[in-house]
Each structure stands twice: as structure tokens, then as C-alpha cells.
Sequence to fold (148 residues):
Amino acid sequence: MALKIPPPIFMLIALIIMSGCYYLLPWWQFKPRWIIAIPLILIAVVSGFLSVLALTKADTTISPFIPQQTARLVTCGIYQYSRNPMYASLLLLLTAAIFIYGEVSTIMGIVFFIVVINHYQIKPEEKVLLTLFGEEYAQYCRQVRRWF
Fold:
């Protein structure tokens, strides 16, 4: 992996972008909706925990920097619904932030996050996993979505 920046750092950068949009590019503000944000945060925390737990139980790496050390292809638990539940949980946190800010322009932070994570993290990981697990991984990709 050429880029050695942890995905949560990209989430923090996205939050900074969202703050900038909120203050510098207000487009359409609405009342903050905590009733939506709180469940999203809870789902994000639980799904992030379940994804780490599944990888730990399978005795394989959780590091995004060493996918070549993946010992097993994990396709059960939360991984039967998303190929990247850890990244999806970060995305859910950013989505909650939109409802906390109450500003539509903050969506730009989510766009940044998705583009960067797809390009610099997910696609390189997928190439490594396809090399490691071949048709088994290809079949998994056909059955399970990348994000949700």
C-alpha cells in the first residue's frame, strides 16, 4: 500500500472539510437532527466493533496497511453484508455529522472520504485479496457490496 495514512485520519480530514463547508460555504441549513444522528452513531460504533471482532476471531490482520498478511477471508458475521464494514462505520459517523451540523454543504466531506478511501484503500486491498484468495474472493465480491 503506497499511502500509509490510517483511514480514521481521512475521517478527521473529512470532518475538517465539513466544518469548513459549514462556516465558509453555507448552502442550506436545517435544524440539527440529533434523533437521526444518535442512532447512526450507535450503528457505526456497533458495526465497527463487530467488524474488528470478526477479524480478531478469524485470527487475521485488522491493519489496513498489511492486507498481504490476511490469513483468512472473512465472509461471515457483519462481513456477509459489507465487504468493508470498518470503512462503512466511519462513513456512518460522517453521515451523523451532517445531521449534527445541520448544513447540506457538509456532504462534501463525505464525498471526499468516499473518493479517497475507495481509491487509496479499498481498491489496493481488493487487488491483494484477489491475489491471495482468487476465485473465492471474486465470488464474495459478486455477492456482497463494497460499502452497504
